UniProtKB/TrEMBL annotation, chains A, B:
MF terms in GO: RNA binding; RNA methyltransferase activity
Biological source species: Piscinibacter koreensis
SUPFAM superfamilies referenced in this protein's UniProt entry, alphabetically: alpha/beta knot, L30e-like
Gene Ontology terms: biological process: methylation; RNA processing
Residue ranges annotated for the tRNA/rRNA methyltransferase SpoU type domain, each copy included: 113-250
A Pfam short name: SpoU_methylase
Protein name: RNA methyltransferase
Keyword vocabulary terms for this entry: Methyltransferase, Transferase
C-alpha cells in the first residue's frame, strides 16, 4: 500500500472520478466503481483489494477508517471539499474506495436467478439485490433498460449485497437468448394468471422475472414463462416491484424448506 | 363547481400551497393536502369531493383532465409556471387537487393493522401503504418519528393507497397506549427470534410492527410483542423494511386463505 496526498482538483484520479459521478452508466466506460461510506467499504474490502482508497484529511486520524483504508492498494488523503466533488451523495462520507468494475458478468446456467426486465428505479433494483442475497438467489440478471447495476444509487441502495452475488448485465437485443441460457424454468407474476403463487407448483431452481414499474414484464418474455398471481385480497392494488420480487423469492425459499 | 383563473403568484391559495410544499409536516398545520397528477387525482376523486382543482392553462383544453378537474368544488386555471412553484415534483403535472387532511385518525380496535415505528424513508412508507391495501391490512398506524403519512413524497409513493386505508398518526409519547388500544396481538420481526415466520403460529387479526431502517423496532415495543424471524438462507442480510413489512402481511394472508 502506498499513501499519498492529493491537494489539487486537477489530479487525474479526481478528474476521472468526477466524470464517473456524472453518469450512472459511466462505470462501463471507465471500468471503475466508486464505493462510498464505511459500511459499504467494509463489505467490499472483504471481497478483494480495492484499487484506491480516498480518505478525507480529517478522517485519516481515525484508527478505524485508517485501518479500513489501508486495505486498498493505494491510499489518497484528500481535502474534504475535493472529496465532496466526486461524491454521489449530498453529504460525502470521509472514506471511499475505487474498485475495478467486474464487467458485465457471464450467465451461469442452472442457478436460482432473478431477472430484471427494465426495472427503472435504482432504489428498487438495490432493494431487489438485498432480497436476492438474503434468499439465496445468487444470480441477478439485468436485461437492457434496467437501472445500471453498478451505478452509485444502486450500489448505495443494495447496502453491500453486490458482494457475493453473481451479477450479469445483458446487452440490448439479447434478452431472449439470456433467458434460454439460464436453463431453468422462468416464472413471472401476472394479475391475470390463474395459478396463485402460494399454491401453484414452483420449480426449483427457477428464474423469477420482474418487470418495468409501469408496464410490467415484456410480452415476449411472458410468452416464455409460467405465470402466477400474488393473491391480493384487499383489492387489485399493484405491489411495488421490489416487494413483488421479494415475495417471489421468499415463496421459493419457503417451499424448499417445507419440502 | 366554480371555475376561476389565477394569474398572480400572490394569490392566497398559491401562497398557502407554496408554504405547504416546503414542509413535509405542513399539512397538519394547514389542514390541506396537495395531490398531484392524473393517476392520483383519479384515485382521490373517487373518495370524495376535492376542495380545489388546479389545472394548467394548457391542460384545461384536454377533455379528460377537464372532466377530472370538474369533480372539485372549485377549479383554478393556473399558468404552468405558477403551478410548478407549488409542486413537490421536479416536473409538475398539469393537474392537482387540494383535499382536506382527514386528521390524525382514531384507532379502531380489533382490526388487522400494520404499525410503523419511526420508519424514516417516505418511499418505504408509501410502499408499505400499497402493500397494506393489497393484503387487506386496512389500518396503518404511524408512531411518532415515522415519515409523515400525508407528506407529498409518501402520497406519491403510495400511488393512491391512502384512499380506502384507515390511517392513524400517533402523537409523541403515546406509542405504548396505541399498541394497547389496538386490542390485537402485536408481532415484530427479529433476526434473533426462535420462531420462523413461515411455520410459527400467527394470530389473526394481528398488528405487525416494523421499525426504523437502522435501529429496527424499539425495545419497549418489542417487549410487548411476539417475535418471529424471516428465514434468510442466503446469509444474515437484512431486508429493506418495506420488503419485510410486505412479507409479514403476505404470510398472514396466506395462512388465512390456507386455513
Amino acid at each position: 500500500m502506498k499513501v499519498g496526498a492529493i491537494t489539487s482538483r486537477d489530479n487525474p484520479l479526481l478528474v476521472r472520478l468526477r466524470k464517473l459521478n456524472r453518469d450512472p452508466n459511466g462505470y462501463r466506460k471507465h471500468g471503475e466503481v466508486l464505493i462510498e461510506g464505511e459500511h459499504l467499504c467494509q463489505a467490499f474490502a472483504a471481497a478483494g483489494t480495492p484499487r484506491h482508497a480516498l480518505v478525507s484529511s480529517e478522517a485519516w486520524d481515525e484508527p478505524v477508517l485508517r485501518e479500513l483504508a489501508s486495505r486498498a492498494a493505494a491510499v489518497a488523503v484528500v481535502p474534504a471539499a475535493l472529496l465532496a466533488e466526486v461524491s454521489a451523495l449530498e453529504s460525502a462520507p470521509p472514506l471511499a474506495f475505487v474498485i475495478d468494475w467486474p464487467g458485465r458478468g457471464s450467465l451461469q446456467p442452472g442457478r436460482a436467478s432473478i431477472v430484471l426486465d427494465r426495472v427503472q428505479d435504482p432504489g428498487n433494483v438495490g432493494s431487489i439485490l438485498r432480497s436476492a442475497a438474503a434468499f439465496g438467489f445468487h444470480q441477478v440478471v439485468a436485461l437492457a433498460g434496467s437501472a445500471a447495476l453498478w451505478s452509485p444509487k444502486v450500489v448505495r441502495a443494495a447496502m453491500g449485497a453486490h458482494v457475493g452475488l453473481a451479477l450479469v448485465e445483458v446487452a440490448a437485443g439479447e434478452s431472449l437468448a439470456a433467458l434460454d441460457a439460464l436453463e431453468v424454468p422462468a416464472i413471472a407474476t401476472s394479475s391475470h394468471a390463474d395459478a396463485a403463487i402460494d399454491t401453484a407448483e414452483l420449480p426449483s431452481p427457477c428464474a423469477w422475472i420482474v418487470g418495468h414499474e409501469g408496464q410490467g414484464v415484456a410480452p415476449e418474455l411472458l410468452a416464455r414463462s409460467r405465470a402466477v398471481r400474488i393473491p391480493q385480497p384487499g383489492g387489485q392494488e399493484s405491489l411495488n416491484v421490489a416487494v413483488a420480487a421479494a415475495l417471489c423469492m421468499y415463496e421459493s425459499t419457503r417451499r424448499r424448506s417445507a419440502s
